Amino acid sequence: MKEKTIVSTATLAASLLMYFYAKSAQKDAIPYVMIGGFMGAIIGESIYEYFNKNKKQ
Q1: Single pTM value for the model
Q2: How would you write 3-46 as a 3-class SS string?
């Protein structure tokens, strides 16, 4: 898979999870979505690097 696809999917998933968490906790969703997007981007990059490293070996 392409790097952009993996990172985008992880970012979207983490953002949505944090959005639903904020809504269930009755808090403002914007900061949670921003933090979730950041964490998702880092997770997506890590996943891509892990698979890319295993592919080279």
Answers
A1: 0.86
A2: HHHHHHHHHHHHHHHHHHHHHHCCCCHHHHHHHHHHHHHHHHHH
User: 28 in helix, strand or coil?
Assistant: coil
The helix-helix angle for 3-24 and 29-56 (nearest 10°) equals 150
Residue 16 structure tokens: 């949505």
6-39: per-residue pLDDT in tens? 999 999 999 999 999 999 999 999 999 999 999 9
Cα 45 to Cα 3, 17, 18, 29, 32: the distances in Å are: 8, 18, 19, 24, 20
Cα gap 7→25, rounded to integer Å: 27
Compute the distance between CA of residue 7 and CA of residue 39 in angstroms, rounded to an integer.
10
